[in-house]
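User: Hey, my collaborator sent me this sequence without any context and asked if I could get a structure. I don't really work with proteins. Can you help?
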Amino acid sequence: MTSNKIKKLNLEDYNKCSNIWDMDEKPKMAKIFYDELVNGNRVTFIYSENNDFIGEGSLVFKNTDPDYTIPNKRIYLSRMIVKEEYRNRGIGGIILDYLIDYAQQLGYLEMSLGVDTDNINARHLYEKRGFTDVLFIGEDKYGEYVKLLKKLK
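Assistant: No problem. I've predicted the 3D structure and written it out in structure-token form, which is a compact way to encode the shape of the chain:
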């Protein structure tokens, strides 16, 4: 079973996430995520092979954007990413399924996320997993994106 490849991120291993995404390129984002891990607002799970960090996904409990979180009802899927050379192997789906299951175990009824409209592969994965309700389509400094919602059972 592949789920043994997914583990909750320990704070002391946070910098190993730079194996997945360039934390030096986005130091503000890296600091925000770290601070959220410290204060308990974010929980991150790592997919690894041979102790190498290959992918990660986070759940955020409170977000300043009311579309993303509703206390004890809606949780926000944040920063799900698979290292480029490992994409299209089903790893993203494994991480996503794990996060959905984890959110359900915590008692959440809904999960939200934001994805760039031009990220066709990610959108396809999310839609396949039930993220079919569109909450918002808009643009920010990174480009056009869509907020999607999935009802959890």
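In plain terms: The domain at 2-151 is CATH 3.40.630.30 (Aminopeptidase). You can pass these tokens on to your collaborator as they are.
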